[in-house]
Amino acid sequence: MPKLTIIAGQHSEAGTKESNDDSCGIRIPEGALLTDKGVAAVIADGMSGSEAGREAADSCVKGFLNDYFSTPDSWTVETSGEKILGALNSWLYSQGHQQYGTPKGLVTTLSVMVIKSTTAYLFHVGDTRIYRLRDGEFEQMTHDHRVTVGADKSYLSRAMGIDVHLDIDYRSFAVEKGDAYLLTTDGIHDFVDDTTLKRLVVENIKTPEEGAKVIVRKAVINQSNDNLSAQLLCINDLPQGDEHEFFRKLTQFPFPPPLEPGMVLDGYRILREVHASNRTQVYLALDTETDTQVVLKTPSVNFEDDPEFIDQFLHEEWAGKRLNSAHVLRVLEPHGRRQFLYYVTEYIKGTTLRQWMHDHPQPSLDEMRNIIEQITRGLRAMHRQEMIHQDLKPENIMLDEHGVVKIIDFGSTKIAGIAEITTPLERDNVLGTRNYTAPEYLRGHGGSSRSDIYSLGVIAYEMLSGKLPYPKELTERNMNKVSYVSIREHNKATPAWVDGALMKAVAINPERRHSLLSEFIYELSHPNENYTRLNQQPLIERNPVAFWRALAIIFMGTTIAALLF
Questions:
Q1: Distance between the two ends of the chain, CA-based, in angstroms?
Q2: Residues 378, 332: one domain?
Q3: Which of 43, 174, 262, 358 lies in disulfide reach of 24, CB 3.0 to 4.6 Å?
Q4: Do both 272 and 364 map to the same domain?
Q5: HSE-up (13 A, CA, CB side) for residue 417
């Protein structure tokens, strides 16, 4: 299957100046890192008026290239870039003040280009530039943050390290095979016009290292009086939807045969079957190497020829291995060389939340809060990795024998960083379990962290009442017609302000829900006067649909009585 193939080169010189305050770097990794993170090119021009322009430029270039490839694979490029650049800017600003006593101590321009899969991501601040050559068109892809004063004077309006708050341009767009990208500092583009730059890129598109040198030499010939740096990246190939090759990689491990107690699979002795569905089987097993009990999850042979299912199964393991929380199921590394498709998790000796709810039909508020808070800790670990569970329900939550709550099953988990990678498969939003699925999924929209908050709110509501927050199962057609049923109709002991917190968490419109998990948890324990006042409002104000429905019933009853008597 074709992969992202880029040839690149760069060159930097001091020019007529005594020192070179420019800095640039390119990293083209191999293997999984190339797929998961892509290629990165960074160029910076330390501000000549600052105390340590070169140090600032070097710090940004080296810092980004080191840190970007160490960020979680589950993060999007945008998230990774913004977090890294925000941290670098804060460091430059604080160090500039500490070392030099001035906001101009460590200041630099910066342009970053990341090419991941079939998309380019640009981060830019200052007057370094990124150009694109495509189908004979040469276009500047960044905007100079420079203010002109008078006829021949200008200054930077934005830069790294100049302010505690970083205002950086970000954009993304699809790349194409044959594209060429040129990154330059102002010592180049202030002295070489776009027409000449285009010609030099075209002439050197197959030899980018030499091309970067030629462009620098041209600026020198044109009497550039500044440092000069150029980077040239040429895209020779892109990952494409070669379904046969993609399927071959997915099926490198055969499905395991049906397993029976006593059988041994790759060093795991099967003890008993825990659960089976038409999609997967779950077994309790003994790790013969460590003599500990573990759980094996295997795919059903019904899906041996289904690449979408296999891809999803593999991503369950991928997601679990990247989560580190006491409240999320721990996925383990298998021993030795795996011969079949399965994955291994810790064994949780306990019960599902569904069974706990059956055993505790009238839990106290404190019991509910304790469980919901623990689920929240697990969800927070997922959200920090830019993962959305998407199928949170009592059956997917376990309580161990010590009362520790853990989220299990990542089969529907959406991973933002993986969604950026082009494959032949359609990775649509996976619809979770009805009654717990956020309404936006029913409308065909993408989910967010607020979608998990909705599911969490439904679980909390059901724990306290044994009921669901809406009178009927939500559908795309009826969700604008049904209204939230106050939990106090089922459990009068529930405070009005807890009812208000639950109503907000399960709002049909995600924009009306809590924006953060911590907000929801806080409101479950701290009275909000707004919710108390809401419950004191007339029915027509707090629930107009219910008011008019009741009025219609009364009117109908009165009319029938009048006709009869």
A1: 82
A2: no
A3: 43
A4: no
A5: 28
